[in-house]
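tool=predict chain=A
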Amino acid sequence: MHLETLQPTSATSLATLVTDERSARKIGDLFAESFEPDQIAVSLVDTGQGAWRVSLHFRDAPDEKRVRHLAAVAAGPEAGRALHFEMIAAKNWVRESLLGLKPVTAGRFVVHGAHDRALVPPSKIGIEIEAALAFGTGHHGTTRGCLLALDRLCKPLNSRRPISSRHFTATEKKILDLGTGTGVLTIAAARALHRPVLAVDIDASAVRIARGNARHNKIATLASFMRADGLAAPHSRAHRSYDLILANILLKPLQRFARPLRALLAPGGRIILSGIFNWQANAVLAAYKPLALEGRIDVDGWTTLVLRRGSRLSRVAGRSRGS
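tool=predict ok
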């Protein structure tokens, strides 16, 4: 998903409430969908004993009535009434809120901040993402779903059994990450598969942050970062087909890019699609026909789909719950 670019230079408006986890996630999802990325930053923090703090940071003073209405739509009338509004001094609130996030484990991957570096087990692949103004810390269901999908595609590489032709193999090497955000998926793919990745984002700040995270995670030699609107950059590369495509964006751009993304996918290649609500999955599947569905992962109301291009494809059972 693209960058959240809220960078307040003056006093900003903050709306907060404490609620249960399910309500907090519903509120966070609805507000992220309802406002432009440069107008809001949403923070969800587990404060313990089942309580979650929701913080909504607005660049400009919002319509309080509308904000309360949206909260009520997401989590009930009590949530709307419980919101507390205040004006706060200029500060990098996204950075401050991310400092309190716990490490997230998704299969072999652990996404963490510098302060939790020592907590990553030796058997896991640690991805260190510093608090920054970018989407993609692993905490959101879309990012986590993509990491889980990537983990499952990589599993045959660590197996003593022969690798099935249905799986992503070590000989496949061209990878595209569309809408890279913090670069977390680029880093995960490069570290797990040891293959070069082209990472593209529409936001110049996202590209800068992702490039820095790649250097910090010591995969800079495997990753190329480009700012581009759409798929112009991938199409212009010397190799115009990819064995693995990661697209963690939203429903509308996924539908808009369906035809060119299908064209970019190499025979036998796979595409991981996310950034969609559970109820939007069928619309995405329809847009990406005739690619075959190999897997579906549902996390916190969001769906990640794994599709494969090939001549003899069959749908395999792949519906599972992220945990």
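The radius of gyration is 19 Å. The chain has two domains: 12-93, 140-321.
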